[in-house]
Amino acid sequence: ADRQGIFYVFFDDNQQLSEALTALPVNMMSLQLEDNVRTTRAIHKDMVAYYQGQKEQRPRGPSGRSVERVSSDGKLQPCVRRVVADLLKSERFNADDIVVLVPDTITDSSLNETGLADARKLTSHPKLGTDVLLSSIRDFKGLERAVVIVAEYDRLPDNPAERRRLLYTAYSRPKFHLILIDEPETRPA
Predict the structure, then answer these.
(1) CA–CA separation, 87 vs 98, rounded Å?
(2) What's the half-sphere exposure (Cβ side, CA atoms, 13 Å) at 72?
(3) How far apart are CA 184 and CA 131, in angstroms?
(4) Mean pLDDT lowest for which of 62-66, 108-112, 166-170?
(5) Sorting pLDDT into bands at 50, 70 and 90, what band is 60?
(6) Alpha carbons within 13 A on the beta-carbon side of 143
(7) Cβ atoms of 121 and 113 closer than 8 Å
(8) Among 59, 104, 117, 169, which residue has the least CB neighbours within 10 Å?
(9) Which phi and psi (to 5°) does residue 33 adopt?
(10) Rounded to whole angstroms, how far apart are CA atoms 103 and 136?
């Protein structure tokens, strides 16, 4: 039987992380979505600093809590342990609600396989309900978690356009809470 239906493609050119341009079929109707209902307004405020587009995005999600900025004072692993422990115990998030995103590959990350409290670990292959996911920003594109922690800013690429796209992608992944560890002072103009 010949079935016909509607096929939708959602595409955000600000998340173009590879060198190759994405080509959509020529006969496809294009409609730019201007309302951001995916993240909170607080997260949107930080995310939009890295957005480059023709039309301004309008935040339509809930107000949400402020983006949290944390300094590791040069001790990243203990800082991540403390932040994750607080999220799990004090704030009662589940391990599956949290992801730690890094700009480079997981194998090059100083956080790979970091031990956490209660025999948990930070890993790219978490045990469901126990471990916390560690992912590169590229590998987590298109996914989301309640809480996103972004770390290892010193491993961002030198190319300003690539940096902007990576940070826009990372900052657009959380549903409720964004935590930035050692965020640099300089932001895009």
Answers:
(1) 8
(2) 22
(3) 28
(4) 62-66
(5) confident
(6) 18
(7) yes
(8) 117
(9) -85, 125
(10) 6
pLDDT digits (tens, 9 = 90+) for 88-107: 999 999 999 999 999 999 99
Backbone region of residue 80 per phi and psi (left: phi > 0; alpha: psi in -120 to 50; beta: other values):
alpha
Q: Do residues 155 and 184 lie in contact, with contact meaning Cβ atoms separated by under 8 Å? A: no
* Distance, CA of 59 to CA of 134 (rounded, Å): 28
Residue type, 183: E
- Alpha-carbon distances, residue 94 vs 37, 91, 129 (angstroms): 23, 9, 7
- Can you give the length of the chain in residues? 189
